[in-house]
Design brief:
Radius of gyration: 17 Å
Helix content: 40-55%
Order of helices and strands: HHEHEHEHEHEEH
Shape: globular
InterPro entries: Flavodoxin/NO_synth, Flavoprotein-like_sf
Organism: Citrobacter murliniae
Strand content: 15-25%
Mean pLDDT: 81
Signal peptide: 1-27
Keywords: Flavoprotein, FMN, Signal
Number of strands: 6
Protein name: Flavodoxin
Distance between the termini: 61 Å
């Protein structure tokens, strides 16, 4: 099948890539608007850049359109503040407003959806994206980054928020660079202060 060969090509490209060696600026060509006129869309949310890198690889490899999922009010730059806000949003069932939407989502046959796992779940802003875009009959192909806890409850969330989409098995990649780096620096600073 054509999709199987596309998936193999993508996995081969990912297998040979060291995320740290990819320039984030070159990984994605557009931040807020859909670019191009492909029948395939890559829509992604990325906080630290790991998911953006994967989205960029898919976009370039498959010559897709690209859309960045962004909240209307940006998450805090501080990692720990963002974690706290995301936990609060999840606990209270808050789905933050989107900065932009895909106006012509109906023209896409397939949507590659990328996101990091936050607190073992799909980030609230990605849930907003799914709730506000009709993916009926489309092929939904998730690619998920995480910091060591796997994909969490993302299968259930995707099934609930895109029940009429056909889903492909997700690509799940551990990318805990930001959390690990933050912890290393924090620990190092504590040794200096002692």
């Amino acid at each position: 099948m054509e999709h199987d060969s596309t998936r193999r090509m993508l996995l081969t490209a990912l297998a040979g890539l060291t995320l740290a060696n990819v320039s984030l600026a070159s990984a994605a060509t557009g931040n807020t608007n859909v670019r191009g006129n492909s029948r395939i869309l890559v829509a992604y949310f990325s906080r630290s850049g790991n998911t953006r890198v994967v989205a960029g690889i898919i976009h370039r490899s498959l010559n897709t359109d690209l859309f960045t999922i962004e909240p209307e009010k940006p998450y805090p730059e501080d990692y720990f503040q963002t974690v706290e806000q995301a936990k609060n949003e999840r606990a209270r069932g808050i789905k933050p407003a989107l900065k932009n939407s895909v106006a012509d989502i109906e023209r896409y046959e397939a949507v590659y959806l990328g996101f990091p796992v936050w607190s073992t779940s799909v980030p609230p802003i990605v849930q907003t994206f799914l709730s506000s875009h009709n993916l009926e009959g489309k092929l939904l192909i998730p690619f998920i980054t995480h910091g060591g806890y796997g994909k969490g409850d993302s299968d259930g969330i995707l099934a609930k928020l895109a029940p009429t989409a056909r889903r492909e098995k997700p690509l799940v990649i551990e990318c805990d660079q930001e959390r690990r780096t933050t912890e290393m620096v924090t620990n190092w600073l504590e040794t200096i202060r002692s």
